[in-house]
Amino acid sequence: MTNPAQGQAPNPQRPTGSKTMTDLLALVDAERTLVNWLLRQRGACLADIVAHTQIELAATEAMLNDLIATGFLVYDVSADPAVYRPNLVSRKPRTVPDQLWNAMD
Amino acid sequence: MAQVISIHSFRGGTGKSNLTANIATAVASHGKRVAIVDTDIQSPGIHVLFGLDEEDFTHSLNDYLWDKCSAKDAAYDVTAHATTASGTSADISGTVYLVPSSLKVGEIAKILREGYDVGLLNDGFHDLIDQLNLDYLFIDTHPGLNEETLLSIAISDRMVIILRPDRQDFLGTAVTLEVAQKLDVPDITLLVNKAPDIYPRETLIDKVQTQYGVPVGGLFYENDEMLQLASGGIFWLHHPDHAFSQEVHIVARQLIAAES
């Protein structure tokens, strides 16, 4: 994963296998706290994130890049400045047979 | 700055939707602009307390989540639907909006089957706050812990957990509190509902507060009048002098005081 602060933005496309809120609970404390905060903010730029976390820039970037790589965040370059946004879905697709779902349509 | 308040219970049947409708309406009676979002997509029902049925709303939360309408389009001003025991509209100085979930089986199934973008639900909450100029957004959730519940916990300024004086509720509430702490919820309040009148008030409140280390904002005793109303309206408007109604207003005033 490349570092957005060094001019090479991470892949803005959503990683496959988006994460759910349940996955969020399994993160280590620092990562979970950051994603929680980004959920409330609905995204934030790097400068605001560093100001919030009070963690040094390189360490914050490393954490953000890990969270992008694992699918919890996306890096949205369409915003100015670019922002990190949560990338969570309500649930993973259920494995109930189609026949059962179709009966409810 | 609007306050987002999520109302949870670990188990069903705690009276969560009933208390949500009563407290939200009581907050609105202080001149506040309030919205209730029914995120209990699997088993929606809070609209019944406002006398609405499926034919009364064109759009629902489901439509918003499928990008068929804006969040505001799915919000209905139900202030005039809050009626007194005589059937006349109550004199509420504020406004109550309701965003219902769909009651159509196919639409419930579609949400369960396909899920939705959590960010979209979060955006919808904020759109409602901005476009309806809200003071409070109440999120009525599905009982237990699921993805929607976790989201509403995560984005709330305050979480209200409703429990009965029941061992299963006590155990479940401990789990919910642990999750709320993991999701960094700033403020948590417990409401004890459906308490049998054999329990002295102070004893029960002390027991719950000691067990969880979280304040009890209100204690509501079981009563026949509630059973008789049978979700046929907002209780405190039908029985304004009842002890239950007085407790509803105490909780409403606490929420307003916490904001200021």
TrEMBL record, chain A:
Stretch list, region Disordered: 1-20
Name by which UniProt lists this protein: MarR family transcriptional regulator
Species of origin: Shackletoniella antarctica
UniProtKB/TrEMBL annotation, chain B:
InterPro entries to which the protein is assigned, alphabetical: AAA_dom, DNA_Partitioning_ATPase, P-loop_NTPase
Highest taxon above the source species: Bacteria
Domain AAA: 3-172
Gene3D superfamilies to which the protein is assigned, alphabetical: P-loop containing nucleotide triphosphate hydrolases
This protein's name: CDP-3, 6-dideoxy-D-glycero-L-glycero-4-hexulose-4-reductase
Species of the source: Shackletoniella antarctica
